[in-house]
Automatic annotation (TrEMBL), chain A:
It is found in: Cytoplasm; Nucleus. GO terms for biological process: nuclear mRNA surveillance; poly(A)-dependent snoRNA 3'-end processing; rRNA catabolic process; rRNA processing; U4 snRNA 3'-end processing. Belongs to the RNase PH family. It comes from Lasiosphaeria miniovina. This is 3' exoribonuclease family, domain 1-domain-containing protein. Residues 1-39 are annotated as: Disordered. InterPro entries: ExoRNase_PH_dom1, ExoRNase_PH_dom2_sf, PNPase/RNase_PH_dom_sf, Ribosomal_Su5_D2-typ_SF, RNase_PH. Keywords: Cytoplasm, Exosome, Nucleus, RNA-binding, rRNA processing. Residues 41-191 form the Exoribonuclease phosphorolytic domain.
Automatic annotation (TrEMBL), chain B:
One of its GO terms (biological process) is U4 snRNA 3'-end processing. Keywords: Cytoplasm, Exosome, Ribonucleoprotein, Ribosomal protein. Gene3D superfamilies: GHMP Kinase, N-terminal domain. This is Ribosomal RNA-processing protein 42. GO terms for molecular function: mRNA 3'-UTR AU-rich region binding. Signal peptide: none annotated. Belongs to the RNase PH family.
Amino acid sequence: MSDRRRINGPVGATIPPASEDGASREVAGSRGGRSRPPNAIRKMYLKTGVTPSASGSAYLEIETSGRSGVSGLKLSCTVHGPRSLPRSSPFSPHIILSTHVKYAPFATRQRRGYLRDPSERDLGTHLEAALRGAIIADRWPKSGVDIIVSIIEGDQDRETSKTQGDESWDLMNALSGCITVASAALADAGIDCIDTVAGGVAALVSDKGDGNPSIVIDPIPSEHDRILAACCIAYLPTRDEVTNLWFKGDLPASDAELYTKLVEKGIQASAKANRVLVECLGETVG
Amino acid sequence: MASTQHVLLSPAELAYLHAALSLTPPIRPDGRAPAQFRPLIAETGILPGTNGSARICFADGTEAIVGVKAEVERTRLADGATAGTEWEEGGSARGEGEDDDGGDKAGDSDWVGLTVEIPGYRDDDAGTAFLGAMLSEALLADGAFARRLWINRRFHWKLYLDILLISPPLSYPLPLLSLTTHLALLATRLPLLKSEGDEDPFFDDDWAAARHLYPRGSGSSRTTKESARPPVTLLVMAVGNNIIFDPAKEELAVADVALAVSVAEDTAVATSTAATMDLDDAAVPAARSLRLLSIRTIDPPSRLTPPGVPNAANSAYGATTAQNQPEARTAEAEAVEGVWRAPRGGAKPLVMAALVQKVLEKGGVADEVLDALDAVDLG
C-alpha cells in the first residue's frame, strides 16, 4: 500500500556524494575503533515533560561518538492516556497498550516513508512486550494508553557510503533507547509500574587487530569490524527480572557460556541506563 | 496480535490449567509429554508453479502452506548504480583479489522477500510483522543463506517466500510456519546454471537437472562453510518450574514466559565426522551440533487474562469491604491459592537461560525435530 496523501520524494533517490578524507581515516583505521572501555555505555541525556499536550513525555539523546558525521540517537516519546476505550471495543480487565515506533523520514541514511514499515512495526511489538511486563495493568480496566516513540535521528554513520548491513544491528540500539525513553514517559504520565524498565545492548564483536571476539556493551556498529551476535534486554533492576530479550546472531550451541555472558552484559548495560533514568525522574520530583 | 488474541477461559479454568502444568511432571490438556510436539502431517512439492513448496497440518487442525518462487535479478552495486553500467572498471579492480568462495560472494538480505498471511489479520498487523521479522531474521542470521542465491557478480536470485496459514489461527502459529518454511526451502530447486563467469545468466531448461538450494545426500555435495539445513524456530514456555515445548493456545494462556528460539544445524562439524565415520551412519546425527541464531520473547497472552476474585473479597460470600470502601478495591489483594492472577513483571534471567539451554541440549527437542523433518520425502 503506497502513501497517496502526501507528495513523497522520488523513489530512486541517490545518496549525496561524500568525500573521503583518506589520510586521516587511514591513520585511525578504516572504520575507527571504539574509544570507550568495553563495559561503558555512551553518555545520555534524558528529560521528561517536554511535550505539554501529552499526559507524559520524555526526550532521550545519546552522545555521538567522537568522529564527525556520526550522529547519536535522538528519541522523543509521548504517552497519551490512560483514557477510556471507545464504546465499540469489548470489555478489557486491563489497560490496553498500543505502541508506535516511527523513524522520522530524515532519521536514517536511507529515507523512510511516512507509513510505518515492517521493521518499525516489529520494534513496536518488542517495545510493547518490554513495557507490558512493567506496567501494573489491572489497575486500569476498560482503558487504553498510546505510547508513541519518534526516532528523530538514528544512530548511523553517514560518511560510509556503502551499505555494510549495519542497519539490522542499529535496530537493537534503537529499541534499547525506545524502552528507556518510553519508561521515563510512562513515569511522567503517572502510570503505575512495578519498576522502571530500561534497555541495554551487548554485542559480541570481532575487530581486525585481535583475532578473539570480545563482548562490548552499547556497541556502535560502525566502530567494529564485524558484529557476530547482539542482544537487547529490557530489565527491571529491583525485581531482577527480564521483560524482553531479543538475541540475534550466530553462536555455536556448544558454547553456552558465551550466550550467558552476552545476556549478563546486556543486563549490565540496562542497569546503567536505569541509573540515568532514576536520576532524571528524581530531578523532576525533587 | 496473534499471540495475544483473546482466550475465552474463565479465571477458574486458568487457575486449574496453571496448577496442572506446574505439577511434576506437568499434565498437559492434550496429554502430551512436556517436550512432545503435536503430531503433524507434512508433504512437499504440492504447488507445481513454485520452485519449492510444502504443506504441514497439525493435529489440532491448523494448516499452513509455503511457496518459494525465485526470480533472477540484477545486483545493485553499493553506490546505487546498477552493475551493468560501471562494469568495466569495477570488474577489473575487484578481479585481482577474487577468492573463489571467499567474501566476494557476499549476499544481501534484500535478496529474500518474506510475507506472512494469517487469515483474520491485516497484513500490516504488528503481530504478523513480528512473525515475518522473526522468520526472516533466523533465515538470514548466519549470512550464508543469501550467499546461496549468488549467481555471478552481476546477477542473483531473488527468493520470494510466501507463507500462508490456511486455517484460522487456533494456536500461536509460529512453530507451524517455521517448520513449513523449513520444508519448503529444503524442497526448493533452482535451475542449473549453464553460462560461465559474469555473462548474462543462461539456465538449463531441464527441470530434472535443477539443483536443490540446500543440497541433500552424503557429504560429497556439501560445502563445508554453509549450513546444509534451513533454521527452525521453536516455541518454548515456562510454567512454574516446568519447561513446555510447542504449547497449544490454552497452555500459552497461562505461560509465565514464552520464548521463540531459532536454531540451525552446524555442518562444519557434521561433514568432518561423516568423512571419518563412513561405516557407521547412525553416528552422524549424534555428532550434529547446533547453532543458536535468534531468540525473541513472545508477549504471553497470560498478562491479558482476567483475574479471579477470592471468596474473601467477594460480596456474594459475605465480604462487605469491597462495597463500603472503594479504596479497598484498588488495594493489592494478596495472592490466594487457587485464584488466578495474571502474572506481573518479567522472568528471572536464570529461567530464560534454562529455557534456551533446554532447546540447545544434545539429543534434545531441536535434534528430534530436525531428525523428524529429515524423514519427509522431498519428491
